[in-house]
Amino acid sequence: MRHLLCSFLNALLPLEEGHTIVSLDLLPIQEAPKVPLLWRYTLTAARCIDNYGGQFVASVQMLWTSSFKPFIRRGGSETCISPLTRDGKYESAQPVYALCLVNDVVEPDAAAYYHHQCSVHTTEPERRLDGLEVVFVELPKFQAASQPEKRMRTLWLRYLTEIKDQTEHISADLLAVPEIEQAIACLREADFTRAELARYDTYWDAISSERTLIDATRREGIARGRLLSQQRMREENQAQGVAEGRQAAIYKIARRLLETGVSAAVVSETTSLSVDEVRQIAARKLPPTPGGDFS
pLDDT above 90 covers what percent of the chain? Predict the structure, then answer.
C-alpha cells in the first residue's frame, strides 16, 4: 500500500510548489530515527523520490503529549545522517521531513493546527537552510473547511479524526476518494497476529505510562505549590504580627510618656512617631494599640 503512503505524505508535507512524491521505499528499522523516549511512537520512515528526481527522508510519528518538540528535532537530525556509513560524506545526507501527528493541543495560544518549522536566515526569510523541516499537526484543533487547494489534506485529516474504533457509518465523501476508501478497507481487513497484538498492547502501555508520569508530575507540582503558598502565608502573617506587636509597644510607650507630662515633640523624637500621631494619641483619636481601643 505504498501508494496510500505517497498520497498521505503528498497531502501533509509542505513540499515545494509542483513537487509530488512519485515513489518511496520504507526504511528498515535500523535506519528509522531513534528519538529518545519517542522512537517507539514512530509509525513509519521512508526514503522518497519526487517528480523532479529529488530525494528526501520522511519520518512519521504519532504522539500523545506536548513534550515532543525538542526530541523530534533531535530525531530528525539523526535521520539525516543515519543512512551514512562510517566513511560516508555528510554532503550525501538526504533532507528530512519530520511529520508529527499530535493527539493533543500543544500550542494553546495559536489558532492554527498545522505548524511548519524550518531554519531560515534571520534577516532574509526567503533563504532557508535545507536539511531538516519539522511539521506537527494538532489533531484536536483540526476542523474540516472548504480549501480546494488542500482538499486531500483535509480528507486525510478527516480520516484520522473521524474514524474511531467503534465507527460504523463513514461519510460518503470520504468513501468517494479512492485512496481514502482503500485505507478504510485496510482497517476493516486488518487481522493482527499474536505478536502484532502484543506490540499494539505494548504501544498503549507506553502511552499510558507516559500520561501517568505527566499527571503525577503535575499533581506533585500543584501540591508543592500549595505547600509553598501556605508557608509563605504563615511567614507573612508572622511578620505582620511582629510588626503590629512592635507598633503596639510604641503606642503604649507614647501614651505613658504623655500621661507623665512629656511634650508631644519629645515623645515624637523618642518613639519615632510623627507629631501628628502623638497628638492623636493624646486626643485619644488613635488607639494605643493597632486595632485596639482606649481601655
Answer: 15
Element (H, E) at 55: strand 55-63
Whether the CB-CB separation of 97 and 59 falls below 8 Å is answered with: yes
Domain count, the chain: 1
Cell (9 digits) for 205: 502501555
End-to-end CA distance of the chain: 93
Residue 76 belongs to a domain = yes
DSSP characters over 125-139 = TT-EEEEEEEEEEEG
Is residue 47, in this structure, part of any structural domain at all?
yes
CA dist 27 and 44 (Å) reads: 8
Q: What does the block give as the cell for 256?
A: 505613658
Q: Residue 245 has what pLDDT?
A: 81
The domain of 104 spans 2-142
**Strand segments (E) across 113-219:** 114-120, 128-138
Cα–Cα distance between 97 and 130 in angstroms, integer? Answer: 10
- 159, 149 Cβ separation under 8 angstroms: no
Alpha-carbon distance of 95 to 76, in angstroms, equals 9
37 located within any domain? yes
183 falls within a domain: no
pTM over 0.90: no
User: Using only C-alpha atoms, what is the Rg of the chain?
Assistant: 34
Q: pLDDT tens, 131-153?
A: 778 888 999 999 887 666 688 99
Residues 15-37 have pLDDT tens digits of 988 999 999 998 876 666 554 44
Helices (H), the chain: 2-12, 69-81, 151-162, 172-175, 178-189, 194-259, 264-271, 275-282
Residue 165 has phi, psi (to 5 degrees) of -60, -35
